[in-house]
Amino acid sequence: MNRDHNLKNTTKLASQEVSRKIAVHEAGHAAAIYLGNQQKGLPPVCFQIFINPLNNGVKASEFLGKPSDHYSAKVEGGRLIHTLPSSLDEATKDFSTAQKHTYQHAFEADIINLLAGPLAEARYVALRDNEPITPELVHVNALQYYGGSSDLEIVNEYLECFIDSDELRARKMTELFLAAFNFVSERPNWLAITALADFILANEKNIIECNDIIDAIESGVRRIATSQSL
To answer: From 54's CA, which of 38, 98, 122, 169 has a CA 20 to 30 Å away?
Structure first.
């Protein structure tokens, strides 16, 4: 779950736009990890957002919203499956039926959370440009154009461990892609994502801790609830 951009010779306006896309992308991952797992009844996990200027001498406040030569951002942690097994069957061979179901559910949730980042970025770009966004217009392979190359690599590692058949892997990818698409498209989730993106952009630290991320998401959720009750 990381983004990496070379902003050399770009204008301040261009770098601000890239920064906004990065913030939305990482907020998509984070909201899916926190809200998505919660909605599925899965256990909470700890994670952080790292903001890393790669050129020496650049302050954290110069990372988002101001030009710099090269920087990266990523959500660190947040996975329910910490180490991928050689195969799902091997990992769950001694599990009860209920344990197998829970493990598979966690496996799928991690994949959805990985896909939610580039899908959030894709949704942001579509809304910015006043363009429609559907699963047909933004398909799985298109996510590489929304900072999703590394996310897709990890997703494919999950699926190769999860399912032997190429055909069944493709079906499962479609199923989980649609689940991630629906997550970022639901208005409360999207407003929480954008609230967290605003928080990321306003932040001046190199590391945003889990509690601060959750507070920002919950603040966005409370604002949504308040506006709906008025």
So the answer is: 122
Within a 13 Å sphere around the CA of 108, how many CA atoms are in the beta-carbon half?
20
List the structure tokens of 86.
């050689």
pTM of the full structure? 0.85
| DSSP H stretches of helix in 85-148 | 88-91, 97-128
- The secondary structure of 45-102 as a DSSP string is --EEEEEEE-STT--GGGTSSS--SEEEEEEEE--S-SS--S-HHHHTTT--HHHHHH
Burial profile 187-215: b = 16 or more Cβ within 10 angstroms, e = fewer: eebbbbbbbbbbbbbebeeeebebebbbe
Sequence-distant (≥ 6) Cβ neighbours of residue 33 within 8 angstroms: 45, 47, 75, 78, 113
Tokens at 42, concatenated = 């899965």
Work out the percent of the chain whose per-residue pLDDT is above 70: 81
Which H or E run includes 181? Answer: helix 166-185
Any idea which of 56-65, 71-80, 194-203 has the lowest mean pLDDT? 56-65
Angstrom distance (rounded) from CA 107 to CA 85: 11
> In this structure, what token pair is assigned to residue 136?
């047909």
Report yes or no: 65 and 71 within 8 Å, Cβ to Cβ. no
Phi and psi at 208, nearest 5°, equal: -105, 115
